């Protein structure tokens, strides 16, 4: 009974209304009156806190304002950053590999091949005492002496028989040969005069390994073929392929322009070179122009 009286007294106090009035100091006139019970005040401030919390949550979650919070990063943005970092790393490695490949190819074409600076390591297993082999016979000594004399002044280190069986060489373009192959003068190909905007075709199936532009020789494109053949096309007016493209024999890879003949607007010429294992070949021996 005592507990019920306390409960009634508590709820009576909570429901009791209080009056808050504001008076004009000069006239003592009542300006504004506010009546509120304890329970009403508690519910009012509780509702106000809930509304403020919901509004703040909406601003953070539903608007771009969350992007300005320190340490916040979207899952998609984080995934894109990781993917871009991996792509940049892969591209840098690919560029480094291609750069080394082009440098080695340039050294092979120009003949500027660097020798290995690492000294040969002597293997103790390959050293034998002087008396471990039989003495040479007279026949063996005569054969070695004759072979050394015959090979002493042989300068050609390349194989004489170039494997061209099964290969059909297509002409690089239609035209007239105006400058023949002459390696003694540093001309390692032939010049073909043709009409402007004529097509330049690959002589064999292969892969594009060089496709760039130089001020001296215009657009240059080179194709790696089977059996270590390389064909090079210089002074072209525009390229139709890029490095890494696969081409077939007779497929168009570039177009001709009057790059090295500014006077004539109808005819121009290109230079075509054919190489085998770093050795320049006369294209006229393999292609009918």
Automatic annotation (TrEMBL):
This is Peptidase M23. Pfam families: Peptidase_M23. It comes from Coprobacter secundus subsp. similis. Signal peptide: none annotated. The keyword Cytoplasm does not apply. Keywords: Membrane, Signal, Transmembrane, Transmembrane helix. The chain crosses the membrane at residues 39-61. GO terms for molecular function: metalloendopeptidase activity. SUPFAM superfamilies: Duplicated hybrid motif. Residues 186-283 form the M23ase beta-sheet core domain. It comes from the Bacteria. The keyword Transmembrane helix applies.
